[in-house]
Predict the structure.
Amino acid sequence: MKQATVRQQEAKASAAVSKGWAKRSMLAVAGSALVASTALAAVFSLQDVNGKVAELTKDFNNNLTALSVEFTALTIDALKTVDLGVTGKLRKVGDHNILDFELTKLAYAYGDGTRPSFEAVGKGEFDFVYAIGQTLINDFAGELDGLAVGMAQDYAAEYGDAVAFSFNTVDLQTNANGDVASMNVAFEVAFDLAKLPEEIEASNVALLGLKGDITVTQKGFEFHVAGVLNPAYSGFEKEQNGMKEYVESLLANDPAIYQELKRSFDFLDSGAKWLVELKADE
């Protein structure tokens, strides 16, 4: 009974962490796209940019790690990013587990400027059963409804009638033992700027809408997220630093930007190492 209680507490803690992670991830994806949308004043060569990125990632590649990031598109005019494409791969080998992650698509499109959009698609292989245990996976799946309710309450508390949020379990598969073999969830959030509370200005809301789905199995995961950005968001203003500054600094061998990007890759590497070293108690 005591062990079951501990497992329930772990599942609730995981659900709470996941709720915060999901909300932060939505904002992080939007933020990544917004970086690409600020004013640019020069044409940059994909080959040059990718060459600099390769220089940064080479130190992370060894017999246990393979990391690569590549720009597939970088179209700009005198004032803005017209479109942007990025792909990436990360493979980390542990003693008993392997993480194979691929960002197959991260894209941004300015369009006519009224509805800048972005899309992120990725997949990965990872043995969740070995890492966290089947019991915790089952418990977490049982907390999905509570997770959905909690996130809806959080959004409503902050944005009131200006936000519509949904989070649904689309599919939940179990095996012959009754254990969860896979779960698929879909979520959608939409903002009506005209209904924002008086204390929130439209320029402080990054998103107009976000929609996506996530599938997790015992051996891996995949996701697809697409969104529309608010063109009135303050992050689009010319005085805000964006892709222009990053690319110019990178090509100019700016030590500060190199250190910032290196810290980002360090974070990815450390996170991957932590994941492949996880081992369930059961």
